[in-house]
């Protein structure tokens, strides 16, 4: 896809009222590494990832999604995307320029169609990272992010039009109709998905583990630590990836996964999967049933950050 200006997902930034508990969770039981912390903002890296950080936590009175950050190949591509967005009447929060976070770089921010803050950057310094060893049950990298939207197809079309995302697969339900679109910017099955929800919110953030054993060991560690397991362990059909979903201390859903499918973009045709079929939700049949209570947790709270840029 030569016209794509985005390359990959960099990080997800969260504002949280209970900052200390959140930091203990992500830098402790979840297995991320605190890179730096200053004045109620912490940057957390995945040991196997070249990204400077994959999660940023900010102390705030209201819970919100601060921003989602994507990479671009070069400053030229950053400038080209900014020009394209302005021509398409997308509201920019900042003009392309120096990025003042760990690793630096060149980038800018803008609002998506639902009011989320999106950041795109290039020339970010590569973090010294390492190979995750056998039985080491910590995240290798950030895998993907899933977003709730009250208008599933409006959001999908915006990302296709302005950011060159491609549809990979769709989940459909006999009562709900279309329930989720899996979207990609590379041969990875999805770096983002859009879920039909009652309001704009974060659905979940997913972290890639080294393999099945590490994924299971990590899931067990979080269960033993007493955090709420929402759904799993199991294996989805769309994406063919494993899943176990948990709630962080402030009610955001986070996922351990592994073996997310890669696709041949030249030959791929999107599937429509009937989500009421048990094998679509979980090929293995090991997860607790997907029901309204599980779905409700993924709706999350109404995002208070829509069309309000984060202060930092």
UniProtKB/TrEMBL annotation:
Keywords (alphabetical) are: Metal-binding
- Protein name (database record): VOC family protein
Q: Where are the transmembrane segments?
A: none
Carries keyword Metal-binding? yes
The protein's matches in PROSITE patterns, at most eight in alphabetical order, are given as: VOC
Segments forming domain VOC: 8-123, 141-259
Per the UniProt record, the source organism is Streptomyces ossamyceticus
């Amino acid at each position: 896809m030569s016209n794509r200006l985005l390359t990959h997902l960099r990080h997800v930034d969260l504002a949280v009222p209970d900052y200390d508990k959140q930091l203990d969770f992500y830098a402790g039981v979840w297995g991320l590494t605190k890179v730096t912390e200053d004045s109620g903002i912490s940057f957390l890296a995945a040991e196997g990832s070249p990204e400077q950080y994959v999660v940023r936590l900010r102390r705030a009175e209201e819970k919100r999604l601060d921003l989602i950050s994507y990479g671009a190949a070069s400053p030229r591509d950053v400038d080209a995307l900014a020009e394209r967005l302005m021509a398409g009447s997308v509201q920019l929060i900042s003009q392309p320029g120096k990025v003042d976070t760990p690793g630096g770089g060149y980038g800018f921010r803008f609002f998506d169609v639902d009011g989320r803050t999106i950041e795109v950057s290039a020339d970010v310094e590569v973090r010294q990272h390492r190979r995750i060893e056998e039985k080491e049950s910590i995240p290798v990298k950030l895998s993907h992010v899933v977003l709730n939207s009250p208008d599933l197809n409006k959001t999908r079309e915006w990302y296709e039009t302005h950011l060159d995302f491609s549809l990979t697969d769709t989940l459909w339900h006999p009562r709900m109709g279309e329930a989720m679109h899996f979207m990609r910017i590379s041969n990875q099955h999805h770096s983002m998905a859009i879920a039909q929800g009652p309001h704009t919110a974060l659905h979940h953030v997913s972290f890639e583990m080294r393999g099945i054993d590490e994924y299971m060991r990590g899931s067990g560690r979080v269960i033993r630590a007493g955090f709420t397991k929402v759904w799993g362990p199991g294996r989805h059909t769309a994406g063919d990836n494993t899943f176990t979903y948990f709630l962080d201390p402030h009610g955001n859903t986070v996922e351990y996964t592994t073996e997310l499918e890669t696709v041949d973009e030249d030959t791929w045709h999107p599937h429509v999967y009937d989500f009421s079929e048990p094998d679509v939700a979980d090929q293995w049949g090991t997860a607790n049933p997907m029901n309204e209570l599980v779905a409700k947790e993924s709706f999350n709270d109404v995002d208070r950050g829509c069309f309000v840029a984060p202060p930092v």
